Amino acid sequence: MPLRKPARVDPIVNREYRTPTGWRRGHLQSIRSRVLPHPWRLDDVASSEPLLVELGDGSQDRVSVILHHPFHPVPGRMLVLLIHGLGGSAESNYVRASARGLLSVGFPVARMDLRGAGLSGDHSSGLYHAGRTDDVRRVIEDLVPWAHNDVAAMGFSLGGNLVLKLAGESDKPGPLRAAVAVSAPLDLSVGADHLHGMMFGFYERFVMNGLREDTSRPGPASGLTPQEAEVIRHARSIVEFDDAITAPRNGWQDAAEYYAVNSSGQFLPRIRIPTLVIHALDDPMVPAQPYRDVDWDTIESAGYVRRAITAHGGHVGFHERGRAYPWFVPQAVRFLTGPATDQT
Fold it and tell me: Which whole number is the average pLDDT over 215-227?
């Protein structure tokens, strides 16, 4: 009997993640939280305090933040700001799972609804996008009194792009002391093309439905022109939406310029705070090639950015049999409690 050749391992894979039997495919990992949702209670591990943060850009927009104080805080642990992805909110399953995992080991946590999303939709006429780091920076500054000057940010998908861009925008990122990005699109243009073609547009339709829901609410909708509202109703792709709404509203010529300016991959070499990048190469929504294009040896040799890249796990999936949390949660906890984020 001929010997079976060992499976080829992608050279950028550096972490092992064991998928549950029957849930190995990236598509299944990506949709499992919707097929088998988990409630992820938070009230038994922390108290909650709702905040409204003034964005201070002249728009009168405010964003909703839910601040959680763990019942068993651990001195010295940073406050962790959680930032959802495109079409998501602070109530997204992956956000609540991360919040509970962090709170249970003594981290204070804040869950943010980006401008126009979730509860923020009741208080803002603007819309979030992948490069709107000023909003995140303003929220972080507002959280300082509760954080004792130490804040970490953990973002998912588009939120991960925001976190990496914010971490790399300045050599002095203020109170932001650490960053974690999960399933972030390093190249927004490549990601948009990939999303359009993947599964006959299934994932793109899912994301577009979330965007329509966000923009149909009284807050954001009140700021839309009739022409914008019409585009949103009929847009069939992310590029169409960004060409007609995101780009012109924010001073870019088109979606291509918006993607070029705000893709987080270009900010990786500039990051000067401890940062963990988590991604699965079988992610059906975020393509693997931009991760393969990164010179990880050079990036990691600078001592700030670490990668946790796996062969499997899907898009913000990483579900494990017999484990309380998705794999990315203990990875983030270990990173944020480790020597890499010791500021002393």
Answer: 72
